[in-house]
Design goal:
332 residues; alpha/beta; Rossmann fold; CBS-domain; 2 domains; 15 helices; 12 strands
């Protein structure tokens, strides 16, 4: 029985070792392809980027099969970072979707071999209407390479696939080349975090990039009183606004103090209602800019062990944000 168990264990270990060897060989082969592509980068990259940046229309990505999947990702990356782009399926293009492409656009066509017959109609269309064509292929002498106004060369050192057939190293290289184009366009266009946020209002990216102004309570929602207000008025304001705090302003409308429900509990006494807000408020409270990232507000509240913070501009309160506003929006 022990012998059988040891035999099974040895077989499992052999299989695991074989899998690790395959994994490392695949990684090495794909890294090798990227190194080859790196060594072959030339001025064509700059020409391609100049063409993309000067486009009056959109960047149209196209490709068939695995190249098409990569093209979709590149189009999505460009569009989300300030370069209007979308994917056109080459087969659908031949059945009417060519009408989606205008003379102001730039086409980026992807084919590792450069001989995908499904691309022929798009290539002819680009020539017929003088639409700039950037070709991404390993073979500049292919049909696609010859049709391209600019050729971005993929490495021609084989696939990681042991059969040498399944697109592996070539699709990795194409994906990285797409990232190169995307990052270069971000730098050229001066694309900002704020602009990125506008294109990612949902999901984790959107929550991470939200500003204080996106989440704060403003206008009549702000619990605000003058600093000479009485405690009864203060209690009513804190209760009615349901934010657990009240901010206090001077005669010029500048925020000069703040009182939280925690502060209130700590200063409770028999004569509390006879006092004025200025007698018990925290003077010169911590504040934040409405243009600050919501994550900065979370850090400040965490570090100072507070649950509310007022947003001010030129000393005047324009909003108040609660830690729950941040957490409910996914900002952590």
């Amino acid at each position: 029985m022990m012998t059988t168990s040891n035999s099974m264990s040895n077989e499992i270990n052999k299989l695991a070792n074989s899998d690790l060897i395959t994994a490392k060989q695949t990684i090495d082969k794909e890294i090798e392809a990227l190194r080859v592509m790196e060594s072959e980068l030339d001025y064509s990259l700059t020409k391609a980027l100049d063409t993309m940046q000067s486009a009056k229309g959109r960047i149209i990505l196209t490709g068939m099969g695995k190249s098409g999947h990569i093209a979709k990702k590149i189009a999505a990356s460009l569009a989300s970072t300030g370069t209007p782009s979308f994917f056109v399926h080459p087969a659908e293009a031949s059945h009417g979707d060519l009408g989606m492409i205008t003379e102001d656009d730039v086409i980026i066509a992807i084919s590792n071999s450069g001989e995908s017959k499904e691309l022929i109609d798009i290539l002819n269309y680009s020539k017929r209407f003088g639409i700039k064509l950037i070709a991404i292929t390993k073979n500049p002498e292919s049909s696609l390479g010859k049709a391209g106004d600019i050729v971005l060369k993929l490495p021609n050192n084989g696939e990681a696939c042991p059969l040498g057939l399944a697109p592996t190293s070539s699709t990795t290289a194409t994906l990285v080349l797409g990232d190169i184009l995307t990052i270069a366009m971000i730098n050229r266009n001066g694309f900002s975090k704020e602009q990125f946020n506008q294109r990612h209002p949902g999901g984790k990216l959107g929550s991470v990039l939200q500003k204080v102004s996106d989440l704060m309570h403003k206008g009549d929602e702000m619990p605000l009183l003058s600093s000479d207000s009485g405690m009864q008025e203060t209690l009513l304001e804190m209760t009615s606004k349901r934010l657990g705090c009240v901010g206090f302003t001077d005669t010029n409308g500048n925020l000069i103090g703040m009182l939280t429900d925690g502060d209130l509990r700590r200063c409770l006494s028999n004569d509390i209602l006879s006092k004025k807000a200025c007698d018990v408020m925290t003077k010169n409270p911590k504040v934040i800019s409405p243009e600050a990232m919501a994550s900065e507000a979370v850090k400040l509240m965490h570090d100072k062990k507070i649950t509310n913070i007022f947003a001010v501009e030129n000393g005047k309160p324009v909003g108040v944000i609660h830690i729950h506003d941040c957490l409910n929006s996914g900002v952590v």
